[in-house]
From TrEMBL:
Sorted UniProt keywords: Acyltransferase, Membrane, Transferase, Transmembrane, Transmembrane helix
Annotated protein name in UniProt: 1-acyl-sn-glycerol-3-phosphate acyltransferase
Organism of derivation: Amycolatopsis antarctica
GO molecular function: 1-acylglycerol-3-phosphate O-acyltransferase activity
Keyword Ribonucleoprotein: no
GO biological process: phosphatidic acid biosynthetic process
Organism lineage: Bacteria, Bacillati, Actinomycetota, Actinomycetes, Pseudonocardiales
Superkingdom assignment: Bacteria
Length: 240
């Protein structure tokens, strides 16, 4: 994707229902991403233009929400993130999270179930909800996805909405996860690739059991890992 192509793509991003602070953050960060990286996007047609959908991506860097947001917007959707509740306490960021209708996750607290309830409601209302199933950066020495948490599977099975896997590669070279400064020179390549929705039809139901949740989660992570292997041109590990 050339700079001019990326700039034109930015002009075609959906602009309705982004919220003021979230929209402002997008408009500020997108030009930096265009000028500071070489982005390649494939598989945008797998994200439906309308209706509820879940997007599952691997997680390597604090830059991932930026690149996955760009990918969703380029696919015609405004993403809503499941994200740790601490972000709603941080100055500036809390305005972005609130205006963007993102969903706080209160880990290890009594109201942790609220995230599940709110995510189900959001997907059922026709939103595009993005989840990083690993819940944190991958600690695999080769950068491969690790075992995912079952939250996205629980939401998918309860709603029957499609889960689109996305492989995101290169953000850890731009913004390393361990407190280092961003690296824009030389320009780093970032790849984002989506695949067809993961087939969970045989597991769907309002009250999935533990086995169903594990099987669904493993299928989702396997789809993300397979896509990442294609992006990297490498054979992924046999299991997370």
């Amino acid at each position: 994707m050339t700079v001019s192509e990326a700039a034109r793509l930015g002009l075609r991003f959906p602009r309705r229902d982004r919220g003021f602070a979230f929209a402002l953050a997008i408009d500020v960060i997108w030009p930096m991403l265009v000028l500071g990286t070489r982005m390649r996007m494939r598989g945008r047609e797998h994200i439906p233009r309308t209706g509820g959908v879940l997007v599952a991506s691997n997680h390597l860097s604090f830059a991932d929400p930026v690149t996955v947001t760009a990918f969703c917007l380029a696919s015609g959707r405004v993403p809503r993130y499941l994200a740790k509740a601490d972000l709603w306490q941080a100055p500036v960021i809390r305005s972005v999270m609130a205006s963007g209708k993102h969903i706080p996750v209160h880990r290890g607290r009594a109201n942790a179930r609220d995230a599940y309830r709110d995510a189900v409601a959001s997907v059922n209302a026709g939103e595009c909800v993005v989840v990083f199933p690993e819940s944190t950066f991958s600690d695999h020495p080769g950068g491969w996805p690790v075992q995912g948490k079952s939250g996205i599977a629980r939401i998918a099975l309860a709603t029957g909405m499609p889960v689109v896997p996305v492989a995101n590669w290169g953000t850890h070279h731009v913004l390393p996860p361990k407190g280092k400064l961003p690296r824009f020179l030389p320009k780093r390549r970032i790849d984002l690739v989506a695949g067809p929705p993961v087939d969970l039809s045989d597991l769907a139901g309002p009250k999935p059991g533990a086995r169903d949740l594990r099987v669904a989660t493993d299928r989702i992570m396997a789809a993300v890992t397979e896509l990442l292997g294609e992006v990297r041109g490498e054979e992924p590990p046999p299991a997370p």
